[in-house]
Design a protein that fits this description.
172 residues; alpha+beta; NADH Oxidase; 6 helices; 17% strand; globular; binds flavin mononucleotide
């Protein structure tokens, strides 16, 4: 039971992870608009613990690509958005990670609504310290994800979800 006439519901159902990008520039204004929308995510005590590094430069993209098995996606992306938790802004690790997750979902939905493709990359977390070193950022910034962004090279890819009935533990 979907509700396609709500813009938010439509974006939620239509968004898919995009791992191949067209060789085309992405406007900085669009990226900034998506990041601003991402920053309107909820956070505990409204502490807004997310921080972003925006990587356009080929050399830095290459250095990050070398740290993940999804290197082809990283290389084809027009821009990589590296998302960190600022440990100095943190008050409760679990809640702060949840807030950054909400921020990441806002980011993906915003990019989708701007006709950009993106994928949330978590596999690179195995090299979290190396990522920080490549970007010359201090230890207070803990890597949460890299979002690879570009104009989609494909559309209509499939995904699936478990039926909602299987996910509800109880209702009374
Ligand atoms: C925490 C997290 C980590 C993920 N890590 C990766 C990753 O490293 N590489 C990748 O290609 N996709 C990654 N994804 C994307 C998922 O594979 C994808 O969201 C899932 O298969 C559902 O597909 P959909 O986004 O198209 O609905 C990750 C997603 C999340 C939320």
């Amino acid at each position: 039971m979907k509700t396609p006439d709500s813009a938010v519901m439509k974006a939620i159902y239509e968004r898919r992870s995009v791992r191949n990008f067209a060789d085309a520039q992405v406007s900085r204004d669009l990226i900034m608009a998506a990041l601003e929308a991402a920053s309107w995510a909820p956070s505990g005590l409204n502490n807004q613990p997310w921080r972003f590094a925006i990587i356009w430069e080929r050399e830095s993209k290459e250095a990050l690509a070398a740290l993940t098995r999804y290197s082809a996606t990283f290389r084809s992306a027009a821009v990589l958005i590296v998302v960190f938790l600022d440990k100095e802004a943190s008050y409760d690790y679990t809640k702060d990670c949840q807030a950054v997750g909400a921020c990441l979902q806002n980011l993906l939905l915003s990019l989708h609504s701007l006709d950009l493709g993106a994928v949330w990359s978590g596999e690179i977390l195995k090299n979290r310290d190396r990522v920080r070193e490549v970007l010359k950022l201090p230890e207070r910034f803990e890597l949460m994800a890299v979002v690879a962004v570009g104009h989609p090279a494909h559309h209509n890819q499939k995904s699936h979800r478990q039926p909602i009935e299987e996910l509800i533990l109880l209702e009374k």
